[in-house]
């Protein structure tokens, strides 16, 4: 499989998603879960994909993995992985990349490991799925991976069942499985959301270290802006199936261009706002079944004007700063 | 583990004791065997002698205690009719019933699991819909009717299979088995299928429901995200999870298969325990009825224990510690 990848494009970014569209064809109509999503992740970089529940973050992740199940389907755009379009690969070709060059970590560590199989079974099968090595070598690799993610006495722990681990430990096991083949890209779907803060901190630190040392690129899907601030290099903000803002994480969080990003950052409770009522974005996320025409944030947007009935393009307003808005917060950026 | 087993055994003894009282009182309430067993022209003196000989002159509680005392020593009384130990009568016929029940249960698993798996993996295909419709028939058609139809078609019309008896048998370890000869197998086929029909439907439905539920689990998606082949995802990750309910239910069903093979055995004249109990009820042969019911109780308890033990093998989360 690896031979069929085009070597001439080795210099291409690890992942370049262009105008991705993934729709679900339900009885109630077409749900445009992902509608025109674009972003790039360079080698060894971390992109934080942020948005509220139902904004299409997870479906984007599954689209990259080729794990979108019926009635869902990728209907448009391209997913360029080291220059090769994943959306055009056959299921069998995709299977050889999955878990091998592209790995995924799921949100709920309590649910991702099969409860009736031992940890060694679940790790060794992953090694053997992509490489012809002896079982002993696969076991040794699994043990080393467990040690790498900070699981004490990995030899013994290999023989355990998932229920004998805590949530944080299970997520470490899942991360170890993702790392078995030293993938070029890891899709992490809210991997620390279900964990408590101290464990979250430890795992984030380790993931960051691993990315830096192995050159693995990472798509970190989350709704937690503080995680993104500490971990990611770039940020892409999703709203109603579209990327509305994309740029360097520090610049975007300091001075967001899109009113939605602005509202999102304003909604984070913090110490210097003590005593004030918590701020929120007025209104509700629109139903993906019948999105209003034009900008989908229009109904909740304090800056909306008449021209917002036309869908804005995701375009650069400043060097390296893209936003999908007719009236971005430019004045604050200039002031900053 | 041993503490767990010990506790289970004490519980089992309690259940057996309670059942023995219920069975004994229940059978006593059915009717007086004296009217059936002793010829109507016997005089008063002969009657009295027979009643005393059978121990029926004593009050019920005394009869029960005598029964219990002997039962502890492995003597469940003598048949009024055959004048043989009741236990021996039943044990003679047990292999035939066990053979039938095992054949039916294995058949149900061998046919039910693949069909259920297919129906679960491809829920919208025509084949799946046909399987599910068929399983409704398997549930709702009465056993005796299906048995008669099988005889009509395969024995009477087509003449492929014999309709009664066990056929040629081979003796192994002092008991006779039909399934080791071709002739015996042809005799076994129809009654086993008849008895299995309900169970096949049950296994199909359980498997399908299990597959449909398990396929949606995160760990199945994670297994796919690891790049495993669809074969391994289905037959290792999904299969081991659906085995848990299937084993439980077929295990428990195995007990009722043995206990209620009465109908099938009667239709196909299969010389098993079921036929014996029907005959014994007709002549109110109390010791045989009581012994039969006690053996069935013991069998259920044993099967439940075995199912629990298998559970711990299949599902590592079930621990048999005495916590």
UniProtKB/TrEMBL annotation, chain A:
Amino-acid biosynthesis in keyword set: no
How is this protein positioned relative to the membrane?
A: Peripheral membrane protein
Q: Which InterPro entries match?
A: AAA+_ATPase, ABC_Ni/Peptide_Import, ABC_transporter-like_ATP-bd, ABC_transporter-like_CS, Oligopep_ABC_C
Task: Tell me the Pfam families matching this sequence.
Answer: ABC_tran, oligo_HPY
Which top-rank group of organisms is this from? Bacteria
Q: Give every ABC transporter domain span.
A: 15-265
Q: Is Cell membrane one of the keywords? A: yes
Provide the alphabetized UniProt keywords.
Answer: ATP-binding, Cell membrane, Membrane, Nucleotide-binding, Transport
For molecular function, the Gene Ontology terms on record are: ATP binding
Compartments, as annotated in UniProt: Cell inner membrane
- Tell me its family: Belongs to the ABC transporter superfamily.
Q: What is this protein called?
A: ABC transporter ATP-binding protein
- Which species? Falsiroseomonas oleicola
Question: What is the taxonomic lineage of the source species?
Answer: Bacteria, Pseudomonadati, Pseudomonadota, Alphaproteobacteria, Acetobacterales
TrEMBL record, chain B:
Q: Pfam families, from UniProt?
A: BPD_transp_1, BPD_transp_1_N
The family note in this entry says: Belongs to the binding-protein-dependent transport system permease family.
Name this protein carries in UniProt: ABC transporter permease
- Entry keywords, A to Z: Cell membrane, Membrane, Transmembrane, Transmembrane helix, Transport
Annotated InterPro entries? BPD_transp_1_N, MetI-like
Compartments reported by the entry: Cell membrane
Q: State which residue ranges cross the membrane.
A: 12-31, 100-121, 133-160, 180-198, 242-269, 289-314
What's the main place this protein lives? membrane
This chain's source organism reads Falsiroseomonas oleicola
């Amino acid at each position: 499989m690896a031979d069929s990848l085009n070597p001439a494009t080795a210099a291409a970014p690890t992942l370049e998603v262009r105008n991705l569209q993934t729709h679900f064809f339900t009885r109630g109509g077409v749900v445009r879960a992902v509608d025109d999503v674009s972003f790039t992740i360079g080698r060894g970089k971390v992109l934080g994909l942020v948005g509220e529940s139902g904004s299409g973050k997870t479906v984007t992740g599954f689209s990259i993995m080729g794990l979108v199940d019926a009635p869902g389907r990728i209907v448009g755009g391209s997913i360029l992985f080291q220059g090769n379009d994943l959306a055009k690969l056959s299921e069998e070709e995709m299977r050889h990349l999955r878990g091998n060059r592209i790995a995924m970590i799921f949100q709920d560590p309590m649910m991702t490991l099969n409860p009736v199989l031992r940890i060694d079974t679940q790790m060794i099968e992953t090694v053997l799925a992509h490489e012809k090595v002896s079982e002993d070598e696969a076991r040794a690799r699994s043990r080393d991976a467990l040690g790498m993610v900070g699981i004490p006495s990995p030899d013994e722990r290999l023989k355990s069942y998932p229920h004998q681990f805590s949530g944080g430990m299970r997520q470490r096991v899942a991360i170890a499985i993702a790392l078995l083949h030293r993938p070029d890209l890891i899709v992490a779907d809210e991997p620390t959301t279900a964990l408590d803060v101290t464990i979250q901190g430890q795992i984030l630190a380790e993931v960051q270290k691993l990315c830096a040392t192995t050159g693995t690129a990472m798509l970190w899907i989350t709704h937690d802006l503080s995680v993104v601030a500490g971990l990611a290099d770039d940020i892409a903000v999703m709203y109603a199936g579209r990327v509305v803002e994309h740029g360097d994480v520090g610049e975007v969080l300091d001075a967001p261009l899109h009113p939605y990003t602005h509202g999102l950052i304003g909604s984070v409770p913090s110490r210097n706002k003590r005593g004030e009522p918590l701020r929120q974005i007025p209104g509700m996320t629109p139903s993906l079944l019948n999105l209003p025409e034009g900008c989908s944030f229009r109904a909740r947007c304090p800056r909306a004007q008449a021209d917002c009935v036309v869908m804005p393009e995701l375009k650069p307003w400043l060097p390296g700063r893209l936003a999908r808005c007719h009236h971005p917060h430019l004045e604050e950026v200039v002031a900053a | 583990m041993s503490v767990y087993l010990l506790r289970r055994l004490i519980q089992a003894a309690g259940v057996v004791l309670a059942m023995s009282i219920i069975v004994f009182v229940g059978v006593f309430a059915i009717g007086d065997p004296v009217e059936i067993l002793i010829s109507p022209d016997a005089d008063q003196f002969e009657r009295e002698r027979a009643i005393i000989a059978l121990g029926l002159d004593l009050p019920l509680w005394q009869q029960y205690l005598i029964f219990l005392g002997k039962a502890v020593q492995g003597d469940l009384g003598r048949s009024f009719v055959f004048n043989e130990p009741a236990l021996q009568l039943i044990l003679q016929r047990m292999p035939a019933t066990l053979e039938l029940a095992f054949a039916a249960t294995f058949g149900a698993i061998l046919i039910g699991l693949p069909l259920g798996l297919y129906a679960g993996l491809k829920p919208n295909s025509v084949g799946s819909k046909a399987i599910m419709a068929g399983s409704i028939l398997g549930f709702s058609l009465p056993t005796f009717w299906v048995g008669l139809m099988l005889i009509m078609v395969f024995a009477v019309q087509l003449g492929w299979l014999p309709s009664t008896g066990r056929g040629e048998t081979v003796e192994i370890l002092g008991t006779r088995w039909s399934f080791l000869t071709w002739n015996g197998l042809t005799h076994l086929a129809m009654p086993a299928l008849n008895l299995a029909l309900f169970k096949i439907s049950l296994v199909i439905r359980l498997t399908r429901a299990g597959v449909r539920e398990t396929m949606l689990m995160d760990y199945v998606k994670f297994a796919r995200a690891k790049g495993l082949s669809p074969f391994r995802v289905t037959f290792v990750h999904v299969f081991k999870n659906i085995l848990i309910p299937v084993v439980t239910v077929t295990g428990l069903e195995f007990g009722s298969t043995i206990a209620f093979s009465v109908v099938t055995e009667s239709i196909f004249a299969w010389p098993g325990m079921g036929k014996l109990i029907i005959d014994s009820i007709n002549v109110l042969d109390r010791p045989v009825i009581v012994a039969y019911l006690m053996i069935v109780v013991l069998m259920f308890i044993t099967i439940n224990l075995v199912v629990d033990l298998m559970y711990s093998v299949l599902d590592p989360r079930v621990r048999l510690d005495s916590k």
